[in-house]
Amino acid sequence: MSELDLLHTDVEDDLRASVRDLLTDHCDPTAVAGLYDGDRSPVAPLWKALAADLGLAGLLVPEAHGGAGASAREAAVVLEELGRAVAPVPFLTSAVVATSLLCEAGSGLLPALAAGETTAALVVPLSAGPDGPLPTFSVDADGRVSGTVTSVAGALEADVLLALVSGDDGLAVYVVPAASAGLVPVVSLDMTRQLADVTLDAVAGERVVTDAEPAVRRALETGAALLASEQVGVARWCLEATVAHLKERRQFGRVVGGFQALKHRLADLSTGVESAASAAWYAAATLAAGDPDTPVAARVAQAYCSDLAVLAGEEAVQLHGGIGMTWEHPTHLYLKKAKADQIALGTPGAHRGRLAALVDLEA
Q1: Is residue 362 within 8 Å of residue 337, measured between CB atoms?
Q2: Is 172 helix (H, G, I), strand (E, B) or coil?
Q3: Which candidate in 110, 209, 298, 300 could, as Cys together with 65 as Cys, close a disulfide (CB 3.0–4.6 Å)?
Q4: What whole-number distance in Å separates Cα of residue 272 and Cα of residue 259?
Q5: 142 three-state secondary structure
């Protein structure tokens, strides 16, 4: 087995610059904060710019199906930038989790997903991880799917839903039109990834994956591993914004950043952010290379980055002082995203429990 190359390529650096420039122009923090007042109008145009204009929806879709044929490394770069901008787009739910699942099936939906014409969502709770229970729907003899799953991420932006159906021959995946589903929006802690309760009442579906449980768990593992990069983006913004603020803020005639106690806190946070970045990038690299260490790397990255992003958000709010406690400053957006991401695709505790078994330690 060849050694993994963990250095960033010029292509990855160019991709990062392109995504950052687009988000700088199209993802204003004020507009993101407006999501908490119910204004979701910025979501569709931002997703179109990323998915279709920049071609990110097809990043993981093979070239034979009209996609870019890129790898988890490029997806990790994109997710870090999306986290850095708290961008309210369904890239993780559609272009990573749902697309990864459909790629294994060679689904006919892939060209439309790659072109950004269609958005998909796997109908599982936000908290569903690669090792936990999977909620299922029932199906009748006519292929009509029924049931309810709560707290689903990406369903509100989806054109098609991927429903897990349990039958006599095991788990299968059915594609159903989102327009035929009952979607009840849920007020979420992180409104940049708003949840919804999904009800299907005898909705006609098309089976696209049979014996689907291994593929579904691999898709969720891919999502968990790459979510770590989003969490790194959140944490890195919190660190950079806090350092910049403390260089300007003055108290008792001195720049606040000059106080030794605050220097120590920022130094500790900086070390944590760099450690998280290394863990997340290694997880992405193992995914891209199909390395057998992927299950371990994914769970290490997700368990560590989840907690680190929350710490970074808490430090940012506190060290910004009074302004950090208000809606006038975007720090609250990052803390909310970090807290929601902490339970997404499996909690840190769940990942550590599985990691213990993978490395032969007692959980």
Answers
A1: no
A2: strand
A3: 110
A4: 20
A5: coil
What architecture is domain 138-210? Beta Barrel (2.40)
Q: Where are the domains of the chain?
A: 10-118, 138-210, 214-358
The yes or no reply on domain 214-358 and CATH 1.10.287.380 is: no
Q: Which residues contact 163 (CB under 8 A, 6 or more apart)?
A: 123, 137, 145, 147, 173, 174, 175, 176, 200, 205
Contact yes or no for 131/346 (Cβ under 8 A):
yes
Residue 287 in tokens: 């995914």
SS3 content of the chain, % helix, strand, coil (to 5): 55, 15, 30
User: What is the pLDDT confidence band of residue 1, given thresholds at 50, 70 and 90?
Assistant: very low
Note the CATH architecture for domain 10-118.
Orthogonal Bundle (1.10)
What confidence tens digit (pLDDT) does each residue in 177-219 have?
999 999 999 999 999 999 999 999 999 999 998 999 999 999 9
Against a cut of 0.85, is the pTM above it? yes
The letter for the amino acid at 150 is: T
Dig out the tokens for 146 from the structure: 């029924």
pLDDT tens profile 43-90 = 999 999 999 999 999 999 999 999 999 999 999 999 999 999 999 999
Distance CA 293, CA 355 (A): 11
Burial pattern 230-241, b for ≥16 Cβ within 10 A else e, equals: bbbbbbbbbbeb
